[in-house]
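Quick board copy: two proteins, each given as sequence then tokens.
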Amino acid sequence: MWLVFYLELMFGLPLSGYGIEPRTLHGLIGILAGPLIHGDLLHLVSNTIPLLFLGWVLFFFYPRIGGVVFLRAYFWTNVLVWLFARPANHIGASGVVYGLAFFLIFFGIFRRDFLSLFISVIVLLLYGGVFYGVLPSDPRISWESHFAGALVGIVTAVTFAKQKKV
């Protein structure tokens, strides 16, 4: 994300045009590129910090499933945005952040072991505001990415909750 932002800034590359444009052929590239592109430094930082923290929690405590959870949050969130979001250029990694946050919150609820519940409570205390982010509030913010990430996170939590080793 930082490299893409640097390249766009330093070389004047118009990379923001490669976000997710729902239901367009050109917008398909955004499924892979959209989370790497950010509108400004504040947008980049506001996605970087939770992505680093939630990613660290995911991979540290759930190393066997961390990669799959991350890839689902990245790919399926963006596919849902491409399929169902309003016509706009959706950029940024917040859909991935929401996917990870909702996974970590709901995984503990569905799994019901002490460690997972403890992680759920910590993530909920730190990122409980994500529940408000799935609602439309600002037309410049892709609430659809947030909502799609939340759905992917919950479905992924349900999928992995019954596995013995995670």
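And the next:
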Amino acid sequence: MSALVVAGAAGVQVRVHDGLGDWTGSAGLARLGRPEGVPGEGRFRIGSVTKPFVAAVALMLAAEGELGLDAPVGRYLPDFDLDGAITVRYALMHLSGLADYSGDHRPDGAGDPGIFPPIGPEYIRKLTTGYEPAELIRFALARGPRFEPGRGFFYSNTNYLLAQLVIEKITGTSYADQIRRRITRPLGMASTLVPSGPRIPGPHAHGYVAYRDHGDLTVADVTEAHPSWYGAAGSIVSTTADLDTFVSALLTGRLLAPPQLAEMLAFVPPDGDGVGIGLFRKEFGPGRFGIGHFGSVPGFLCFTYGVPDGSARMVLSANRGAVDRSDPAAVAAFLAAVDKAVTTCFAALHVPDGKLSEFR
């Protein structure tokens, strides 16, 4: 955690549960220029770790006969004139081929910015601007597909905005309401919410974006961001304790019925690293597989993974600091520190032999 702060995170917090018990820790600052450390139970933006929540809701609706995983998305959303081969399953697994309205971002921070302007003053201003899901979806559709549905993998937030609208069309309520009714309330996740405005309520760390403005490094506080930026693709705010509760309930079978959990864990390809419905399987070391998701939104990173049976879990949140996005070396060093922190954390989990690879 300290190495990650040195590399450019403002602060880091970690929660671990394994055979030896529970451990939490933090490093760095809640806010640049202030002495307070990261609040151990503070909220943060979880980014795309939102996607497993949304996928779980979709699977519950499938179990109730309200949603067909292999039905065309266009059956539920005819106004978008979608390719009939794009199924709900393909959307939830990023196999639809749809472009990403938020851009095609490479790990070094470069790439197509999508509907949002490049990093700079206008980008910072846009963070608090509201968008309608249909507006973002239509922007992506206008860019054309990456490939024929089912013929490849491309991580696209557009898929989960479609899932959001499908859930809302079927239930007649917001996806936020469905997450609250079906997941956070039953599991007692009182600190988890889909915010209705730009602010993060309660104690929380601040996240930053650093960029060059006429040669000078500007460090902008981007903690406040409109939730419509990502919607069902990444808008949830939570804590390490609540995320640990969620991944435990999910992987141990307390949240979904066995057939739906099996659907969620049907990874492609069937061996090694793979993608499932709202989840990824990642090999953190020889034979050490984790199941979960990662999240990245302006100012915040989040990683939530558990071993296949859910008996050991880790959650890491980092609020970004003054990492100069225009300096490739600084960005590479920060990303390497993030990868090392997450890998080291998962590798330290105490798990009986045979538990880490049983889903391989």
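Board note added afterward: The mean pLDDT is 93.
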